[in-house]
Amino acid sequence: MTSPTWQELGRRLTEALHLAVAPVAIAFGAEAPAALPAFDAPMSEPAPDGRRGRVPASCVFWIHGADHNFSTLPADHGNCSVGRYTHGLASLEDVAGNDDVAALLESGWVSPEAVGTIPAVSVRPGAISYGPLGDLAPGIEPDVVLLRVNGRQLMVLSDALAELTIQGKPQCHIVALAERGTPAASVGCALSRSRTGMRPEEMTCALPAARLAEAVEAIEQTAAVDSGVARYAASDARRF
Predict the structure, then answer these.
(1) Composition of the chain by helix, strand, coil, percent to 5
(2) Which residues form the domain of 32?
């Protein structure tokens, strides 16, 4: 049997979960693929501590990646120290002295002890590529597939994927968990929600791309069962 294409898996995911936003493929590589255009927003003016990037944080690339294919370089991610670390672009020592890290620690948003437990991508990439899974550029092999979901969709994912772990802040570390092989969802974080403009009811889920085909099959089966139960409940409710 022929393995499903990334495009087919993207379509099936969207249909099974009734996603409002396209699944985003994320690929970590040694260099930017020649087939992809570079993300070309202007580089920001440097912050007092030297931070600068093409977007406020790495999670903002998820938003653009739902619309079109592009590649990014490490410098493009330079404004958010948290995102640089979770995406494997910097060590904790590299970012420890930055103003944004100091602000998060001083506010009590995160403790120094918790910082040391945040996972990061297992490799230090020379480029990170993004694109809608259902319209992925030829030759791109994703490592992670990111979904933007609501409560009902997360219900289906939780039932379908026994290994799914539900995480909190920072939201971006679910990409690192998925890159390492663990499907993970996040209720979001104030830092990311402010920068991405995600709706209050939206959450995220990151799936390991290497196991996506089996995950999609489980999601489709669970969604079909839930739809059947919902139809029964709606019919039964007519008695009231």
Answers:
(1) 45, 15, 45
(2) 6-235
Residue 18 sits at φ, ψ, to 5 deg, of 55, 50
Pairing status of strand 165-167 against strand 184-186: parallel
Assess if residue 1 is contained within a domain: no
Residue 59 near residue 192, CB atoms below 8 Å: yes
Determine the average pLDDT of the residues in 50-61. 96
The answer as to whether 64 is a domain residue is: yes
Query: Is the confidence at residue 90, as pLDDT, over 80?
Result: yes
* Strand positions, DSSP E, 126-216: 127-132, 144-149, 165-167, 184-186, 203-208
Q: What is the pLDDT of residue 1?
A: 63
Bin 18: left if φ > 0, else alpha if -120 < ψ < 50, else beta. left
Please write the tens of the pLDDT for every residue from 107-142: 999 998 988 899 999 999 999 999 999 999 888 999
51-55 contacts, C-beta under 8 A, 24 or more apart:
51/78, 51/79, 51/80, 51/81, 51/98, 51/99, 51/100, 52/78, 52/79, 53/77, 53/78, 53/79, 53/80, 55/79
Dihedral sign from CA coordinates of 175, 186, 104, 72: positive
240 in a structural domain: no
The three-state secondary structure class of 122 is coil
- In whole angstroms, give the CA distance from residue 103 to residue 97: 11
Tell me the mean pLDDT in the region 94-113.
93
Residue 35 lies in a domain: yes
Total number of domains constituting the chain: 1
